């Protein structure tokens, strides 16, 4: 699960950076505000890569997805991209758990086979 979720978060890191560049064109927003918000969100993406397997890591990832979708109020394209990344996040968590379960099952079978052979 960690690899899939981290890949999604790194993709979001770049999308948030590009959305910050687009938001810079809004005359109502200052550059400092745009990069403070974008920078915090980008930093959160990187930090979450290391926190995925810890308690609350997945929940923080979901919170980031909500914020990413809500950023569509500033950059309208982010409604679509946020929804796409929320779907990718769901798939990463869902299929990542299935992969982790399969790995554990195969490891248990290999251990049982080694014990039977001895």
What's a concise summary of this model?
The protein is mainly alpha-helical and 118 residues long.
Task: Describe, in plain words, how this protein is organized in 3D.
Helix 1 (about 1-25) packs antiparallel against helix 2 (about 30-50), helix 1 (about 1-25) runs antiparallel to helix 4 and helix 3 (about 55-70) packs antiparallel against helix 4 (about 75-115). About 85% of the residues lie in helices and about 0% in strands. The radius of gyration is 19 Å and the shape is elongated. With about 120 residues, it is mainly alpha-helical.
Which keywords apply here?
118 residues; mainly alpha; 4 helices; elongated
Q: How large a portion of the residues is in β-strands, by DSSP E?
A: under 5%
Number of strand elements = 0
Distance between the termini: 33 Å
Secondary-structure content class? mainly alpha
Order of helices and strands: HHHH
Profile the largest sheet. Answer: none
Q: Rg from C-alpha positions? A: 19 Å
* Fraction of residues in H or I helices: over 70%
Count of alpha/pi helices: 4
Shape: elongated
* Mean pLDDT across all amino acids: 93
Low confidence ranges: none
Describe how the helices and strands are arranged.
Layout: H1 2-23, H2 31-51, H3 57-70, H4 77-117
Helix pairs in contact: 1-2, 1-4, 2-3, 3-4
């Amino acid at each position: 699960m960690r690899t899939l979720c981290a890949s999604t978060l790194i993709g979001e890191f770049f999308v948030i950076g590009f959305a910050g560049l687009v938001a810079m064109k809004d005359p109502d927003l200052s550059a400092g505000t745009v990069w403070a918000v974008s920078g915090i969100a980008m930093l959160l993406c990187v930090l979450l890569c290391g926190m995925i397997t810890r308690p609350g890591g997945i929940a923080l990832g979901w919170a980031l997805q909500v914020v990413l979708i809500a950023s569509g109020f500033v950059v309208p394209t982010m409604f679509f991209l946020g929804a796409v990344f929320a779907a990718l996040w769901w798939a990463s968590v869902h299929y990542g758990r299935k992969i982790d379960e399969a790995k554990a099952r195969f490891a248990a079978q290999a251990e049982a086979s080694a014990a039977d052979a001895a």
